[in-house]
Description:
Helix content of chain B: over 70%
Structural class of chain A: mainly alpha
Distance between the termini of chain B: 150 Å
Number of strands of chain A: 0
CATH architecture of the largest domain in chain A: Orthogonal Bundle
Low-confidence stretches of chain B: none
Number of helices of chain A: 9
Order of helices and strands of chain A: HHHHHHHHH
Strand content of chain A: under 5%
Order of helices and strands of chain B: HHHHHH
Largest sheet of chain B: none
CATH topology of the largest domain in chain A: Rna Polymerase Sigma Factor, Chain: A
Radius of gyration of chain B: 51 Å
Helix content of chain A: over 70%
Mean pLDDT of chain B: 80
Number of domains of chain A: 2
Structural class of chain B: mainly alpha
Distance between the termini of chain A: 77 Å
Oligomer: heterodimer
Low-confidence stretches of chain A: none
Amino acid sequence: MKYNFWNKSVFRLSNIIKERKLDLTEKELVHRAQNGDLDAFKELVNQNESRIAATITGMIGRCPEAEDIGQETFIRFYQNINHFRAESSVATYLTRIAINLSLNELKRRKRKKLLFPNSTEEMLYLKDSDKNTEKLEINDALQKALVRLKPKYKKVIVLRLVSGYTTRETAELLSLPEGTVLSRLARGLKKLKQELQILEN
Amino acid sequence: MKKRKAVKLLYKSFDKDLTTEEQNYLQKALKADGLETERREVQNLRHALEKSAVSGFSPFFSEKVVSRVKQQGREIEKQYFFESLTSRFYRVAVAAAVAILILISFSIIQNQNSLTPTTAVSSSRSLEEMLVPAFTTSLEDFYED
């Protein structure tokens, strides 16, 4: 009888702790992660995974390197977590790291292409919400067209349309005026349309 | 009506609210310059881009990240241990080297101090004194007993 009561109360207590953990705000999670709580850090990873995945795959395509860069993004965040002062959101901070790492990857590819012109980059599909083949084909074509775009247009298109940031957030992330973001977005979309037409032909 | 300005307004209209004047200009252009197709194409492209976003990386992504963090933590601890060991060893080695140098210099000074009077004495002795020991026992000494 006593044992049952004890078990039940422990179970209730653990549930309360779990519920409280789910209710924790981003600031609290960061604070806990700064004190070495890896569960809090894991929660931050779970909360931001989709946005970072969208940004990285938008920038470099759906390739095996995308996940490595994703992991590297979160690891760099953890390494510098004590310098994080919550002036911006975790997502913004992580996106900046992801964009920089993706640009490094694009530079690496460019160098590789110069050294080995015949090498081909392996592309594969990551976890996708849509299993529709037609949509997968569209996504594939979009990815190929995006990869061909200049980084300055790609960054704006990916952040604004793929990752879902607002124009103002995109401008803040890239340290650009809003007007420049809008003009690059327009020019980038035009070029993307042209690339898609080339691919279709 | 300038088509270029109308296209610019068309792209702008997706991200920013246009003024009434701009809206009227665009509406007229959409009808007159056949920009309706362009508008639909851009809208579809934007929609496709929004839908193209992946929902995440491979399964257990967060677990993989956390395990890498733990692994790195262990490596950092190891590195820190070896670094502290080498820095400590370095300090011990320097201290030992200094101690050895002090000991050597001390012994050299001691030797010099002990050698100086003996040479002075030896120089004052004659060759005979040096050859004949100062305390010699002769047969007579035995017989006296």
